Amino acid sequence: MHSSICFIGAGNMAQSLIGGLIASGYDKQKISATDPTESQRNSVTQTFGIQCFADNAQAINQADIVVLAVKPQTLESVCESISDSVQTNTPLIISVAAGIRSDDINRWLGGQTAIVRTMPNTPALIQTGATGLFANSFVTTEQQSQAEHILRAAGITVWVDEEAKLDAVTALSGSGPAYYFLFMEAMEQTAQQLGLDEKTAHLLALQTALGSAKMALESHLDCATLRKNVTSPNGTTERAIQSFENAGLREIVENAMKAAQNRAVELADELGGKA
């Protein structure tokens, strides 16, 4: 029998998870959501056939699992509005709100709360996401399995054993889609300078990215070996790779990812506080 899940917030990430769960055979009668906007509630009910509520505390009364899918800036007030219900019913809390540490969520919910904090990324919207998860000390083994099942509805999942490692996840897969978009954007622009029309450059850049990722996923070889395999001595690819290396690409990537990690720490301090 499926556990009852209530999503607080019915935006894109929540809808991605709801859609993935229903597609995987999860009983939609066991899924509900809340949203302050009536039109959004009506849209979600019409799309997925689930119940939607305006009142968070009322909605989570019967929930075994509560998914916090609201903007980080509003998470504190949302948690405080449902803390009495959470303390009474003790559901598993799953947070998909970026940057808020589990200690802060636990404090806002009244303490002693089982919390799984997650760091998904935007490809989750098309069920190809990558999500890092961390469980606090109140989460049971069964609840870890429940959280993993829900997040797998939107892609792959990876557990980390220390919450601070979610900042590294943020720097890699959380922000990563933008890195690839930037690289594809630069390739498209250069291809047009080399004579291709915009449509052709766009199509070839995207298909090359998709094919490369698919090869890396399906191969037993690491990325360095795959790169060497398509780099013929004295060929065109070798000349381009040398140009990247001479320009310090690895150092550029290292500096960018460390900047993202540092910003994740700053945001957690700003949004959650250090108390």
What does this molecule look like?
- By secondary structure, the chain is of the alpha/beta class.
- The protein is elongated and about 70 Å long.
- 33% of the residues are buried.
- It has helices at 12-23, 38-48, 56-59, 72-89, 102-108, 141-151, 165-174, 176-193, 198-218, 223-229, 236-246, 249-272; strands at 5-8, 31-34, 51-53, 65-68, 92-95, 115-119, 129-135, 155-159.
- The mean pLDDT is 94.
- The chain is built from twelve helices and eight strands.
- An eight-stranded mixed β-sheet has the order 3-2-1-4-5-6-7-8, sandwiched between helices.
- Belongs to the pyrroline-5-carboxylate reductase family.
- InterPro entries: 6-PGluconate_DH-like_C_sf, NAD(P)-bd_dom_sf, P5C_Rdtase_cat_N, P5CR_dimer, Pyrroline-COOH_reductase.
- One of its GO terms (molecular function) is pyrroline-5-carboxylate reductase activity.
- Residues 163-267 form the Pyrroline-5-carboxylate reductase dimerisation domain.
- Residues 5-99 form the Pyrroline-5-carboxylate reductase catalytic N-terminal domain.
Arithmetic mean of pLDDT: 94
Distance between the termini: 39 Å
> How many beta-strand runs?
8
Q: Rough shape?
A: elongated
Measured as a percent range, the helix fraction is 55-70%
Family: Belongs to the pyrroline-5-carboxylate reductase family.
Main location: cytoplasm
Domain Pyrroline-5-carboxylate reductase dimerisation: 163-267
Domain Pyrroline-5-carboxylate reductase catalytic N-terminal: 5-99
